Each structure stands twice: as structure tokens, then as C-alpha cells.
UniProtKB/TrEMBL annotation:
GO molecular function: ATP binding
Keyword Membrane recorded: yes
Keywords for the protein's UniProt record, in alphabetical order: Amino-acid transport, ATP-binding, Cell membrane, Membrane, Nucleotide-binding, Translocase, Transport
Name of the molecule in the record: D-methionine transport system ATP-binding protein
Domain ABC transporter: 2-241
InterPro entries: AAA+_ATPase (IPR003593), ABC_transporter-like_ATP-bd (IPR003439), ABC_transporter-like_CS (IPR017871), ACT-like_dom_sf (IPR045865), MetN_ABC (IPR041701), MetN_ABC_transporter-like (IPR050086), NIL_domain (IPR018449), P-loop_NTPase (IPR027417)
Domain of life the protein comes from: Bacteria
Species the sequence originates in: Enteractinococcus fodinae
SMART domains, sorted: AAA, NIL
């Protein structure tokens, strides 16, 4: 549906040049909610702006619905843009105009009739649950309501694709959650493909099925949310995943363990899948001569599954600990030794 193939972009200015995108390739499929995550300056905005050609790549191709965006003429580009709605962090609304007027704007620009505009605006206002604010001015709305107007405006031309540029970053946690649920509903009920950029990993966790992690203009990791969260490879990805799956041993507990002069080993265990949760812990706790201490544990819902991370201290004779390790392995749980 959206394909970036070896896309690179360099900005040059008075103080030298910067590689905003370096050889970026990714594929967003129909009905994905695809999240691009990265720290400030990673290249996320540059990437998303390539999709509706607010930026041109220096090399590589950007394809939307099988059409090469980079080689489109003006008329084709305008048509393509109607199929790609955009939602912004700062809403970009006309503050002194009404909700109706703001949502109608893309339809007016597309030359639709008055009757059609009225019908479509009412439809999208119902989708974003703002029908009662039709005649209110933007300046009278809360941040969450403004973003609903932004989403309604983006949906007005019935696009297949929605681009969201940090759409919830200016909102409080409760409002963020309601906007994320709205985006999910739009994706599920209308089949709209969503490409979003964010620096908040919990946004990805809440609604995305796929994710790409960017750093210094490159995509350093990508895959399904479960793959990337379940087994993050690069240090940057690990740092992001840490913000939603906190798997650190609390320092106060680590201090206690350091004082423990018995024979022990510590393992970090990781599993993906809801059925695994209880498979190995009861067996371990019943094993002869083995004491099992949970030093840290976290279980998080991702897409339709869970990722769990446990830190266990196995205390006992070498033979008892080895038996414990075998039980963990037999349960299919990935384990890594940890030194405190
Ligand atoms: N028009 C421009 N001219 C010069 N440099 C630019 C321009 N736009 C972006 N850059 C630079 O390109 C790099 C990538 O910027 P970009 O805005 O894509 O990153 P980002 O990940 O979206 O960051 P943020 O989360 O802060 O918006 C940055 O170093 C930025 O300073």
C-alpha cells in the first residue's frame, strides 16, 4: 500500500549538510497501523512527509497504491493527496472558524457541491463524536476536541490512508487514550491504513500492529509489534521498549541479593504468548532443593498476545539450579544469565 524503497534525503544549509534519511526501506500493508518511533531528529517527520510528497527524496522511490509518488505530475499529486489524510500534533485548524467550516475545507477545495459537503461533514462529525459541536468555533474547544476535528477533516475526502504526525503528543494521558481508541476504530471499521510517527512507545503498544524504529536517519529495526517488543535488538529499540516493558531489577532488591552469600544464579526470562504465563513457575517452585525468588516481573499486552519478562534468582546446590534451568528450557522460555 505504501512502499519506501532505498529512500535517502540530505538537507544542505549554511552550516553544512545533514542526512535526514539514509537508505530507508519499509512497506505498509493495507489496514496496518504502522508506527514509526524515534528520538527527536531521527528523521520521522521527513519520512512521513515523503508519502504525500511534502518532501522529495534525493534518491529511492515512494509508492502509494502502486503509484510512484515521486514522479507524479501536479494533477495526479492533488488526487493522490485526497486519498491521504493528515493529522498534525498542533491540529493546524482555523481557530476563528467553526468546526463545520474546518472539516468542510478539503471538500470545498475539491470542488464538491454544497449538499455533498453538508452530508459528508455530518457523517465524519458523527464518526469522531462531535456532531453537537458542528457550529462551535475551534477556539472554544478542548485539545482533545480539536484533534477530533483534525481527524474529521483528514477523513472528509474518504481517504484510504491516514498519516498522523505526533497526533497525541500535545494531549494529556486520558485524552491521548480516547484519540488512540478513535484511530483504532477508524482503522477497524473503515479499513483505513494508518501510518503514524511518535516518540512515545506506549502509542505503538496501544494501537499499532507494526513498528519501525529510526535513529540518525536510518530504520534500525522493524517488524510486528510483538516481534520488536518481544525481542528488541538495537540499543535504541531496547531503550524505547524499556519505557513500556520495564524489566529492570529495582536497585533496593539488587542490593539485598548482592548481600546473599548462598549459592545462586540469576536469570532474565522472556516469553511471548498468553498461555505460557503459568507453565514453568509452579514447576520451578516445586523442584527439590530449589528456592525461587522473583526479583522483577512485568507482563504487558501487545496486539493480541502478551510479552512477559521475569528476573528470577535460583538458590540451591549446583545440581538443583541446573535442574531448574532444564525446567525453564523445557517450557520454551528464553533465558539469559544476569550478573548484578
Ligand atoms: N527543512 C530542513 N532543512 C534542514 N534540515 C532539516 C530540515 N528538516 C529537517 N531537518 C533536519 O533533518 C533531521 C531529521 O529531522 P526530522 O524532523 O525528520 O526528525 P524527527 O525524527 O521528525 O524529529 P522531531 O521528533 O524532533 O520532529 C534533523 O537533524 C533536522 O534538523
Amino acid at each position: 500500500m505504501i512502499t519506501l524503497d532505498s529512500v535517502s534525503k540530505r538537507y544542505s544549509g549554511k552550516f553544512g549538510s545533514i542526512d535526514a534519511l539514509i537508505d530507508v526501506s519499509l512497506e505498509v500493508e493495507h489496514a496496518d497501523i504502522f508506527g514509526i518511533v524515534g528520538f527527536s531528529g531521527a528523521g520521522k517527520s521527513t519520512l512521513i512527509r515523503m508519502v504525500n510528497r511534502l518532501e522529495n527524496p534525493d534518491s529511492g522511490t515512494v509508492t502509494v497504491d502502486g503509484q510512484d509518488v515521486t514522479s507524479m505530475r501536479r494533477k495526479e499529486l492533488l488526487e493522490s493527496r485526497r486519498n491521504v489524510g493528515m493529522v498534525f500534533q498542533q491540529f493546524n485548524l482555523l481557530e476563528t472558524k467553526t468546526v463545520f467550516r474546518n472539516v468542510a475545507m478539503p471538500l470545498i477545495l475539491a470542488g464538491r457541491s454544497r449538499a455533498e459537503i453538508a452530508r459528508r461533514v455530518d457523517e465524519v462529525l458523527e464518526i469522531v463524536e462531535l456532531s453537537d459541536k458542528r457550529e462551535a468555533r475551534i477556539s472554544q474547544l478542548s485539545g482533545g476536541q480539536k484533534q477530533r476535528v483534525g481527524i474529521a477533516r483528514a477523513l472528509a475526502t474518504e481517504p484510504d490512508i491516514l498519516l498522523c504526525d505526533e497526533a497525541t503528543s500535545a494531549l494529556d494521558p486520558k485524552t491521548t487514550e480516547s484519540i488512540l481508541q478513535l484511530l483504532k476504530r477508524i482503522n477497524q471499521t473503515m479499513g483505513v491504513t494508518i501510518l503514524l510517527i511518535t516518540h512515545q512507545m506506549h502509542v505503538v503498544q496501544r494501537i499499532c500492529n507494526k513498528v519501525a524504529v529510526m535513529e540518525g536517519g536510518r530504520v534500525v529495526e522493524q517488524g510486528t509489534v510483538t516481534e520488536v517488543f518481544g525481542n528488541p535488538q538495537s540499543p535504541t529499540t531496547q531503550e524505547f521498549v524499556q519505557t513500556v516493558i520495564n524489566d529492570q531489577i529495582p536497585e533496593a532488591i539488587a542490593d539485598l541479593v548482592r548481600e546473599d552469600d548462598r549459592n545462586y544464579r540469576i536469570y532474565r526470562l522472556r516469553y511471548v504468548g498468553a498461555t505460557r504465563t503459568n507453565a514453568f513457575l509452579p514447576q520451578l517452585s516445586r523442584a527439590d532443593g530449589l528456592e525461587v525468588n522473583i526479583l522483577a516481573a512485568t507482563v504487558e499486552q501487545l496486539e493480541n498476545t502478551v510479552v512477559g519478562v521475569f528476573h528470577l534468582q535460583l538458590v540451591g546446590s549446583d545440581a538443583a539450579i541446573t535442574h531448574g534451568e532444564q525446567l525453564i528450557d523445557a517450557a520454551g522460555v528464553v533465558k539469559e544469565p544476569v550478573q548484578l
